[in-house]
Amino acid sequence: MGKPITTASSGTCVAFPNVCKTPVPTPAGPQDVPIPYPSIGQLSSAEKQSGDPTVFAGGDPVVTTDFEIADTTGDAAGTSGGVKSGGQGGPVTFPSGSGSVNAQTYPVVRMFDQTEQNDGNCTGTCLGGIPTIRVGG
């Protein structure tokens, strides 16, 4: 059975843990401590990276692996950056999508497809889609 397609309208991309180095006061002075935070990206902020979108569902652009969400929230306290990426509030990218349905030559991203968040500091998932439009593998 297929999964609902994702559009740039509503829904979120969520990853946890997004482990970031966070300055913590100690008797010896501030020390960077790795602390897990959420990484949350809003699908309404998703933008196509090459050209303008031409495929729509319900009046909104269909998200493909060529889209990106520029900013995420949830890790503001981790000011020393992610342990893997060094970034804070970095973008959401979509490394995978449907294996059989493309829009403008790129795989369509579906609900529960994998995301990379905060410059690749953590892996998450897409939570949002149009339940009446489903695409397979």
Straight-line N-to-C gap: 9 Å
Largest sheet: 4 strands, antiparallel
Topology pattern, helix = H, strand = E: EEEEEEEEEEEEE
Number of strands: 13
Strand order, largest beta sheet: 3-2-12-11
Low-pLDDT ranges:
none
Which bin fits the share of residues in helices?
under 10%
Specify the structural class.
mainly beta
Task: Report the mean per-residue pLDDT as an integer.
Answer: 94
Shape: elongated
Q: Taking Cα atoms only, what radius of gyration do you get, to the nearest Å?
A: 17 Å
Q: Can you describe this structure in just a few lines?
A:
With 137 residues, this protein is an all-beta fold. It contains no helices and 13 strands.
Description:
- It comes from Palleronia pontilimi.
- This is DUF4150 domain-containing protein.
- The protein has 137 residues and is mainly β.
- The protein starts with a strand and ends with a strand.
- The model has no long low-confidence stretch (mean pLDDT 94).
- The protein has strands at residues 3-5, 12-24, 31-42, 46-48, 56-57, 60-61, 67-69, 92-93, 102-103, 106-107, 114-117, 122-127, 130-135.
